Structures are given as C-alpha cells and as structure tokens.
Amino acid sequence: MCGIVGAVAQRDVAQILVEGLKRLEYRGYDSAGLAVINAEGNIARLRRLGKVRALEEALVQEPASGGTGIAHTRWATHGAPSEANAHPHISGDNIALVHNGIIENHELLRNYLQEQGYTFVSETDTEVIAHLVHHEQKQGLSLLEALQKAVHRLEGAYGTVVMDRNDPERLVVARSGSPLVIGVGIGEYFVASDQLALLPVTHRFIFLEEGDVAEITREGVSIFDSAGLPVEREVVDSDLDHEAGDKGPYRHFMLKEIFEQPDAIASTLEDRMTAETIVLESFGHRAVEILRRVRAVQIIACGTSYHAAMVARYWFETYGIACRVEIASEFRYRKAFVPDDCLFLTISQSGETADTLAALRMAKEQGFMSSMTICNVPGSSLVRESDMAFMTRAGAEIGVASTKAFTTQLTALLMLVTATARATGRIDAEQEAEIVRELRELPHMIRNVLTLDDAIQQLSQAFADKHHSLFLGRGTMYPIAMEGALKLKEISYIHAEAYAAGELKHGPLALIDSDMPVVVVAPNNELLEKLKSNMEEVRARGGQLYVFADRHARLVAGDGIQVIPLEKVHDIVAPIIYTIPLQLLSYYVAIIKGTDVDQPRNLAKSVTVE
Ligand code: AGP
C-alpha cells in the first residue's frame, strides 16, 4: 500500500528512485510519480496513472536529472486514481512532498489553508501537508522546523518525505504510523517506506521510530524525537538478499515463494532447536521467565496471519493452554476480557498492519502479562513495539498472496506452543522431542508435496470456468480450508467459501450442485471418518469433490470425486503440509484465468491504513 523512495546524492537519482519503486510494486498501487531538483534548481516532476513502467517510459521522453529526489507509488484512499492525485504534491513553487498513510483531519486543515490563500489542485489528504509545510516555512522557519511544526497539526498516520528547491541538498522526513527507513550510503543517503526498495544501493539502515522527524543531507542524518530532542538511532546491517526482489526463473513471485518454503522453514528453525528441545531464549532474553508464567494466550492478526492464529488455538488448547483468537479490526473496538497471566501475541508478515498495530497499542493499556509478535520484517513497528519478537525468516515476500510467510508463521507457532507447553510443565521431554523431530522433517516433507505441482496444474482446469467453490476441513484443517479459500478468491477472483465440514448440513449443503467444486483437506486423523460422511453428503447431491488426502485414507477416486494423494504425515504438522497443494491450486487457476497473480486487483501487500 503506497511506497516511498527518496535520495540525496552526488549522482543522478531518477533511476535509483524508479528501481526503488519497482521493488515496492508488490505492495499494490494505482499511480506513480517522482520529482527531482534539476541543474537549473527547478522541481522536475513526472506522474503517471498505472504501472511504474509508464513512469519509466515517460522519463525516457522527459529526462529528469538531479541528485535530490523523491518518488511514490499511490494506492488511492482520498480521491480517485489519477495523475492529478498522484504524488509528489507541490506547494508554492518550491516544496514537493510524498506521503503514505491517511490524514484524518484533512478537511479541517484544508479549510484553514484555503483561508490562508492556498488553492488545492488534488482531492488528496496529502496535499494539506505540502501546503502546511509551505505555510510554516513562510513564517520564517527552516524546512526541518516547518515539517516539525506541520506534523504537530496532523491527526492520522503518515510517513512523509519533503524537499525544497531552495535548499536542494536536503530531504526532511517524518514518521508516525507509517514506516520509514533511512538507507546509509557513502556520501549519499536514501529513504524509503521499506528497506527492500534500497537494497540495490545499500544494506545499512536506520529505522525511524514513531514520532521521529529527520533531516537528511549527503553528509549525514540528524534525527529528532516527537518532543523535538535530538536522538541517536542505531545503524543496522541488513542480511536481506539483494536478489530478494527478483523472480529468478519463476514466472511469478508467488510461484517462487511457494517453492522457497522448504528453505524458508529450514531457516526459521535454524539455531532455535537442539536435537530434542526448542531453545526458549529464541523468543527473547526474557522468554524463559515469561513463558513459564503463561496460563492463557490472546492472539490477534488479520487475513492469512489470522488463519495461522486459528491453527495455533487448536495446538495451544491441545496442551491445556487457554487460547483466544481474534481479528485485529474487531478486537481493537471492543472491550476484551483479559485473563490472568495472559500473553498478547500478534502475528503479521509485514509487521505494519494498521489494525494489528493498533490492537497491540491498546493491549498495552489493558493489563496483559507481556506482548510478543511473530513477524517476518525485522525493524517493523510490531517488532519494535512488542516485548518479544520471533522472526519468521521467510525472506522478502513480494506476492500479495501470502504463502511462505504463512507456513513459516505456522512453524514459529508450533515452536512457541511446544516451548510454552514445556516451560509450563504440560508436556514432557519425550513429547517435546517428538515435535522437534517433526519440525526438523518439515523442509523435506514440503519438497515432497511440491512434486505434486504437475498433478495440481491439471486439476486446476476444473476450476477455471467456475464462479463459486467450497473448501471443507475439520479440526486444524478448518483454518487451512479457510486459507485455501482466501488464496483462491484473492488471486483468481472466484468466490470461495470455507466451512468446518460439520456445518454443511446447517446451511451450505443447499449450494451444492455439479457446478460447485468442493475442495476437501483430508489427512488421516481421528476426524477422517466424520469427514468421509460429510463428503458423502456432497456426493449424494451431485457435488464434485477434489480431495487432498493421505494416501492411506482409503479414499477412492470415482464418479464425482478426484483424490490427490499425499504421503502420511504426523497430525501436528499436517496443517503446514496440506497448505502447499491449496496454494498451488489457486496459483494455477489464476494462471488459466490470466489474472495479475502477484498484484491482484484492489489489494495491497501491506495494509498500513485502517
Ligand atoms: C494474504 O494472502 C493477504 N495478503 C492478507 O490477508 C494478509 O495476510 C493480511 O493483510 C495481514 O497482513 P500481515 O500478515 O502483514 O499483518
């Protein structure tokens, strides 16, 4: 959702800005723009509706060269996608600004600024920030002071970068509720909303904190906290791979990321287990003391991460640890009951999801024992604001449809459940060792499932002309069915609903006919016989079943039923394994339908606004 890149350098920065925007494309956007201060000291601005490619082509026609520049990809919130609404926005003849987030009091500010003589040329909330900075500067303030003063008047969320053609070797930036990271080069500095954008130019980053305002020149960075006091922020060396933003031999990021799962899980497990135990300290230096006290867990997440949370609830409760799971956007607006010794756990790929972050901030006031996040992005807001953070190490996930982030979340959650159960004396050493063995086998097991690629590609043809589909599972497979349905609707735009199979006869059975494919996730567990009865209910009504089943489940393909056999797996890791074929299914259906797999319509990778 919206992307920002900025640079102050001695070289021309337009190509760096465009490359940075391309690396943020996965976040979802509808227009792109950039501005540089050129040799004549003017602001050269280019904006295009649609893809960054269009901006790049425009740049060939109208080259913009200069060492200081800002760029943006916009995902429309206030005002339709259009060139006029695209960033950067300009105020007076000198201020240019890009912004991520939402300014909630923009109408009030717009009225005030109009009274001061400003004319608005866009429908965006962002334009008020540009005029506010300009207005403050007119009162005799420096660019930095003007931004500091302006942000005090803003309500809502912002990550913003401003430049001034009268002060051409400086950028000023501010963050509150929308991330910004400064890239440290040699004699040059950069800024972006995600470190991924800057990997071609640096691997050294300063993560700004909430309320920070900073001034960036070629010589260095000065950072001030929300009270305006100078602060030092650590420079962090990133181990993210430069190639993280490339598809390699794969047609789409999503397919690449599906196939990266064995390595992503192996890396999530690395250094965190002995031969027979989970290393408690992997959850943070205070984890031993905290996990021993846990009597209940409240998990908050959105979308795919919420499905991971739902699986974890089954796991926690198997070992006698009370667990509640809730969608962040619901939790944050109600008064929740806080049990004693309750760990507040957030799950997020990006670490920047606005609702999840707001829920964490609220939970801090509510008396939870401690907070932990399971997250994939180091230095993200959730990581910084939680008491403990466990990184999933999936590597950059570019496809909007979450794949490897999900299975690494499940892996991390199974480790956490095991560690908590052991720390609280709910499982013995032998049980822990058994789970550790299963975890260790995961990469190998997933490689095996990935060999079903061709068979699933064949199967996908049965879905491509359908408008509706149903996904069924029981127990931990119910959230996996939900995840399968989310994947299908997200990238193929086929309506997909998931049900706990036992609910069929309470309503959804009425939908069944030969035009409604029904996907069933059927490992060989204690609920298999119940699930078989549910499948018969579908079959008896002419429904078409597509069953991912344990090869020993004695399910025979026949009229109205296709079976895709999987190797036998331990019940505890089955949710992780059975996710993979559902990801492949949705991918291949989307390929047949010709949709934009990596950037599905109307969606953004990182949902940083409410
Ligand atoms: C999943 O495919 C989605 N893109 C979406 O549901 C996502 O999981 C959700 O927006 C939560 O994001 P987070 O994990 O970054 O918090």
TrEMBL record:
<keyword id="KW-0032">Aminotransferase</keyword>
<dbReference type="InterPro" id="IPR046348">
    <property type="entry name" value="SIS_dom_sf"/>
</dbReference>
<dbReference type="Pfam" id="PF13522">
    <property type="entry name" value="GATase_6"/>
</dbReference>
<protein>
    <recommendedName>
        <fullName>Glutamine--fructose-6-phosphate aminotransferase [isomerizing]</fullName>
        <ecNumber>2.6.1.16</ecNumber>
    </recommendedName>
</protein>
<dbReference type="InterPro" id="IPR035490">
    <property type="entry name" value="GlmS/FrlB_SIS"/>
</dbReference>
<comment type="function">
    <text>Catalyzes the first step in hexosamine metabolism, converting fructose-6P into glucosamine-6P using glutamine as a nitrogen source.</text>
</comment>
<feature type="active site" description="Nucleophile; for GATase activity">
    <location>
        <position position="2"/>
    </location>
</feature>
<dbReference type="Pfam" id="PF01380">
    <property type="entry name" value="SIS"/>
</dbReference>
<keyword id="KW-0677">Repeat</keyword>
<dbReference type="InterPro" id="IPR017932">
    <property type="entry name" value="GATase_2_dom"/>
</dbReference>
<comment type="subunit">
    <text>Homodimer.</text>
</comment>
<feature type="domain" description="SIS">
    <location>
        <begin position="459"/>
        <end position="600"/>
    </location>
</feature>
<feature type="domain" description="SIS">
    <location>
        <begin position="287"/>
        <end position="426"/>
    </location>
</feature>
<keyword id="KW-0963">Cytoplasm</keyword>
<keyword id="KW-0315">Glutamine amidotransferase</keyword>
<dbReference type="InterPro" id="IPR001347">
    <property type="entry name" value="SIS_dom"/>
</dbReference>
<dbReference type="InterPro" id="IPR035466">
    <property type="entry name" value="GlmS/AgaS_SIS"/>
</dbReference>
<dbReference type="InterPro" id="IPR005855">
    <property type="entry name" value="GFAT"/>
</dbReference>
<dbReference type="InterPro" id="IPR029055">
    <property type="entry name" value="Ntn_hydrolases_N"/>
</dbReference>
<dbReference type="InterPro" id="IPR047084">
    <property type="entry name" value="GFAT_N"/>
</dbReference>
<keyword id="KW-0808">Transferase</keyword>
<feature type="domain" description="Glutamine amidotransferase type-2">
    <location>
        <begin position="2"/>
        <end position="219"/>
    </location>
</feature>
<feature type="active site" description="For Fru-6P isomerization activity">
    <location>
        <position position="605"/>
    </location>
</feature>
